[in-house]
Amino acid sequence: MFLRSENDHFSIQNAKEYFRCSMKLAETVRENPPVNESKFFLKGYIDAHNNIGMLEIDLDNLDEAQKILTKGLQICADEEVEEDYDGRSRLHHNLGNVYMELRMWDEARKHIEEDIKICKRIGHCQGEAKGYINFGELHYRVQKYEEALCCYRKALDLAKSMEDEDALATQIKQNIETVKEAIKVMGDLKKEEQNLKKLTREMTSGKGTARERKCLLQQNASLDCLIEKSRMILAWLKLLEFAKRKKRVASALCDKEKLGDSFLAIGESYQKIRKFNRSIKWYMKSWETYKSIGNLEGQALAKINIGNVLDSDGDWTGALDAFEESYRISIEANLPSIQLSALENMHYSHMIRFDNVEEARSRSPNVATQKGKLFRSSSIGEVVIASDFAASGSKCDIDVNGNLLHKHNAADLELLAGDRYDWCIIFKIDKQLILVEASSCMDGDKLSIESIKVELACLYYLRLPIERRSEGLLPIIRQIKSSGRVEEFLETIETLKDCLGKVSLEASIHGWGITIN
After folding, report:
1. 3-state class of 444 per DSSP?
2. Highest mean pLDDT among 14-18, 96-100, 388-392, 416-420
3. pLDDT for residue 458
4. Which end of the chain is least crowded, N or C, by CB within 10 Å?
């Protein structure tokens, strides 16, 4: 789940504290165990390492998670715990996930295979199925699609062999469809590569002629297509190759905006392959280039991406500064989608990184919906990583084209392939932006204006400082305007398609008069 509310935040903090207490207690008892019960407390001690490791994964502290989970396995070895202990399989399972995120493919493979072997030996079908799901994810990330399909089919066979695992089977089927779609995109990418080769040959013959600029523009368009398709299938090394070629073409065109775009794509590539110093270098180049031509949108995008890299690299203060700068620029340029993303990242930093609930509340963009999901991914879909622990913290990324992405640190059995952002309506109240999920305010196939007013009042109230909320009053919203026109009737969702994901509706507060009991 996405950590938006204070309750979620406190739950994570409490869980972390309880797990650490259980670890200390288990360690104390292990050293002085009751007669014949040493094995029980030893396993509790090992499980505590697994639980804390999973929490660190969910908070995107991958290096810390790797240390804790590895220590758990070392305890198993030192204490000569049986090879087929299910706690070992869980440690291997989660270490496989950690190394996958760190792009240490050989280490990830070793731990995933060990997880599968243990589950198979002890007859734990669900664990074995989840192991194959992770193995499929590993192959998917390195574009080995046939191997990924093979793993998912094995997982599906196991899921079908168990009772009450329909949800697991359904998610595996969705992953299979995602891989099949990726195969199609890879085919399109290879065709476009051939087109680029053709354009490159034409450029050779057209150099120095009137056709030269046209050839360069055609190459740039082809490279943009290749960059997007590489991004869709997570082929980051391919994206890096095409982004560097785009840089050369943009330089030949003397087009600073295209050059800034190429720098941004290069930075993204290095970020995804976790070469953070290089990523920062190229993101800074993109920011400087956009600044030189007065492109505020490019500057805001670059700053958010710089913040995300700094956060991943452990520089949380620097990350927060970058998010705040992006927010300032997006306000100046009136860029609502980037403004929302910057706010979300500022909220994440204060809530998760600095444990500062009051500051987080003041930065909350109030984009939470009843289902807790908002932003879309620019990829075809995200293949599930089967995890034994569901909670996760998230922050927002923005791709080169300005699309809002969710950074998922861990996923439970859910494949995010829908474009849910398009079904949210952005309202402006004073200077604040609030998102309302359209489906929560439907009356049949039409939108209920009164339901929207109630939803807006509640969401606005939740943004208030705690001292204001303690007064127990909700704002009264009487008017909703669209392009200056007061809306007083129901509209179908189709007629508001142009408003979805855009700030085109305004609401105004007319007093405070509803008491909360």
Report:
1. coil
2. 96-100
3. 78
4. C
Which pLDDT score is estimated for 395? 52
Q: What's the pLDDT tens digit per position in 397-406?
A: 544 444 433 3
Q: Are 138 and 97 in contact (CB under 8 A)?
A: no
The mean predicted confidence, pLDDT, of the chain is: 79
Q: What is the C-alpha to C-alpha distance for residues 445 and 438, in angstroms, rounded to an integer?
A: 11
Sign of CA dihedral 185, 189, 190, 194: positive
Give dist(CA 509, CA 427) in Å, integer: 12
Residue 164: how many CB atoms within 10 A of its CB?
Answer: 6
pLDDT tens by residue, 425-455:
777 777 677 777 766 677 666 677 777 887 7
Distance CA 236, CA 382 (A): 15
Whether the predicted pLDDT of 141 surpasses 90: yes
In what helix (H) or strand (E) does residue 25 lie, and over which residues does it extend? helix 6-31
β-strand partners of 425: 436, 500
Q: In what order do the strands lie in the sheet with 446-447?
A: 442-443, 446-447, 491-492
87: left (phi over 0), alpha (psi -120 to 50) or beta: alpha
Residue ranges of the chain that CATH labels 1.25.40.10 = 6-179
Letter for the amino acid at 96? G
- Structure-derived torsion over alpha carbons of residues 29, 35, 39, 43, reported in degrees to the nearest 10: -30
Q: What are phi and psi of 416, to 5 degrees?
A: -90, 95
Residue 408 pLDDT exceeds 50: no
Angle, nearest 10°, between helix axes 296-312 and 336-348?
A: 20
- Comparing 20 with 141, the larger pLDDT belongs to 141
**Euclidean distance between CA atoms 106 and 190, whole angstroms:** 27
| Vertex 398: Cα angle to 350 and 380 (nearest 5) | 125
Domain 425-517 class, CATH top level: alpha beta
CA distance 516 to 271: 47
Q: Alpha helix locations (H) across 334-445?
A: 336-348, 357-363
Among 1.25.40.10, 3.90.1300.10, 1.10.260.40, 3.30.420.10, name the CATH number for the domain at 6-179.
1.25.40.10
Residue 356, Cβ neighbours under 10 Å: how many? Answer: 14
Give which of 143, 304, 147 is closest to 230, Cα–Cα: 143
- Residues linked to residue 434 through DSSP beta bridges, in sequence order: 427
Q: How far apart are CA 424 and CA 367, in angstroms?
A: 9
Q: Per-residue pLDDT for 232 more than 70? A: yes
The answer to whether 332 touches 291, Cβ cutoff 8 Å, is no
Q: Tokens at residue 371, please?
A: 């289902």
> Model-level pTM?
0.71
The Cα-based distances of 171 to 129, 176, 415 in angstroms read 12, 9, 7
Q: Name residues whose C-beta falls within 8 Å of residue 49's C-beta, 6 or more positions apart in sequence.
A: 23, 68, 69, 71, 72, 75, 91
* Whole-angstrom distance, CA of residue 457 vs CA of residue 507: 10
User: pLDDT (tens digit, 9 = 90+) per residue, 304-326?
Assistant: 999 999 999 999 999 999 999 99
Query: DSSP character for 429?
Result: E
